[in-house]
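Milestone 3.1: sequence recovery, worked example.
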């Protein structure tokens, strides 16, 4: 095993798309960080979980737990959360007025919703996305091609097509999102007028790696990161949506952020992953990499999947203008 790097920060998000809490340590398990994203905002009109991809004003809201989340916090058992609006008002998740306040702030009818039980799969479903929806999510103009999603396993693609978020979680795709300081520095070097602040990219943990490559975490995919008390498995690069370009407290709106990532980083920054050994992670933990096995060449199955993805993209309905 080799040194992958040291954890420099850990981020927990009580409410999906709202400001995070930086925590010195966190327990991790199959659903990711304990008490991560136990609340989200639901679009009342479309009856589906939504996010700052479509309602960027959510990034200006703060969220913190009223009390230390108990061990049983999770699907069907979301702890009380305190939501703060930019005007200084705060609302408890138990206050019925929170829904109206959030709706007025984002100028759209929404409700604050607790993470449903895993058995209530209907609450996780979403209408099929149109090409217009995808362009909104990825911040694309009409003449720009849709992103290549073939890096996702077929089963995961089927899941995120049917459900707004994976069943049992409010994360976008995988329980853990890992980012290195080196990736942020590499992007800042090609877009020096933009601010590649870690808060734009909403990782679970930020790692400082001794690797001199521009994106060390990409080389970890398929391997295992062994910590003192927990192990993580990076899986695929994190494809970036429009969210990093939105403004939020202390950071201005900057479309060049996503353009630079698309042009210089294959539209990816960081990696998605799973927890393979539950336990505790903490700032300062040194992670050791058990390297992945490297295939000699792209397999025939991958080539077939890429062709399938092109066919699926062609079949996605166009949708109307938002």
């Amino acid at each position: 095993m080799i040194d992958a790097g040291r954890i420099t920060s850990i981020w927990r998000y009580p409410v999906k798309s709202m400001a995070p809490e930086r925590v010195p340590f966190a327990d991790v398990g199959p659903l990711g960080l304990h008490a991560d994203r136990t609340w989200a905002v639901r679009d009342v009109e479309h009856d589906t979980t939504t996010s700052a991809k479509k309602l960027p004003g959510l990034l200006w809201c703060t969220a913190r737990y009223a009390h230390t989340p108990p061990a049983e916090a999770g699907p069907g058992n979301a702890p009380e959360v305190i939501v703060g609006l930019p005007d200084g008002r705060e609302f408890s998740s138990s206050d019925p007025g929170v829904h109206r306040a959030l709706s007025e702030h984002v100028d759209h009818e929404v409700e604050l919703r607790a993470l449903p039980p895993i058995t209530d799969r209907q609450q996780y479903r979403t209408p099929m996305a149109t090409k217009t929806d995808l362009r909104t999510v990825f911040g694309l103009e009409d003449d720009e091609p849709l992103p290549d999603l073939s890096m996702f396993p077929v089963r995961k693609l089927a899941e995120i097509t049917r459900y707004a978020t994976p069943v049992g979680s409010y994360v976008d795709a995988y329980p853990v999102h890992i980012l290195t300081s080196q990736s942020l520095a590499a992007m800042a070097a090609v877009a020096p007028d933009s601010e590649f602040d870690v808060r734009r990219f909403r990782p679970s943990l930020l790692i400082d790696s001794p690797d001199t490559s521009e994106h060390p975490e990409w080389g970890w995919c398929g391997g295992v990161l062994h910590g003192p008390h927990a192990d993580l498995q990076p899986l695929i690069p994190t494809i970036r949506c429009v969210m990093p370009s939105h403004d939020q407290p202390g950071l201005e709106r900057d479309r060049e952020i996503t353009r630079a990532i698309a042009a210089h980083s294959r539209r990816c920054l960081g990696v998605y992953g799973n927890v393979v050994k539950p336990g505790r992670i903490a700032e300062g933990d040194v992670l050791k990499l058990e390297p992945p096995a490297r295939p000699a060449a792209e397999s025939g199955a991958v080539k077939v999947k890429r062709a399938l993805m092109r066919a699926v993209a062609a079949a996605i309905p166009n949708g109307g203008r938002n």
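Confidence is low (pLDDT under 50) at residues 296-305, 307-316. The helical segments are 97-106, 131-138, 154-162, 181-190, 255-264, 300-315.
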